[in-house]
Amino acid sequence: MLQILRTKATKQQIDDSASDLVGFIKVVIDIDRKILSAGGERHVDGEQMLLADGSHQAFLWGGGFDTESKEIDYNSMINLRLSDNNPSREVLSESIRKQFDEIVKAILW
Amino acid sequence: MVDTKQQILDIAMNLNRIGNWAADGYESKQKRILLFLSQTKGYIESLNQATIPHVFFPTLQAFIPIFSAVYEEGQSKPNEPDAWAETCMTWGNILTHRASLIT
User: Fold this and answer.
1) What's the confidence (pLDDT) of residue B40?
2) Which of A53, B64, B71, B101 is spaced 20 to 30 A from B56 at the CA atom?
3) What is the ipTM of this complex?
4) Which of B9, B97, B16, B49 is nearest to A18 (CA)?
């Protein structure tokens, strides 16, 4: 289930978001508003949900959180943005990765 | 256990490669995609299910039908190439994460 999470998630919210991909949660982080979309099978859906909620594209970055291994990845089709100096599907900026980690850990950990 | 883990990582790496190639343009990379799909299928078939660690077994059970569908759809240009590519990369990531649970 795809949902926007703005504060620390409940176990039910995490379970709901993890149900789409056997415990793996696709996340799109808004590093400005410090919120995220969690769940679904495609990052573009989470991105669209956040944009409709008032987020700006330049602050949105996609990746994943595995609830079983507790690992975070920064890989998403939506990350490939030359206009934001990211010519890769991986988030290249260490600063953005750090912010990504902080938001995931605050909301989903 | 180490061999199984390496096999799973090989599958994951292939999926990420296939997904990235497809996202860059399925038609221009089709030959390579088909080769790596076939190789990945071989890797999966060679996994000895009797030695799959308990911690990884549910992930594998969920993955096998997903890969069957990915394999079949990938034999020609998928109807939605970006969605197909994303599925490959997503499962590449899932398998990589879950492999870390295998000691």
Assistant:
1) 97
2) B71
3) 0.92
4) B97
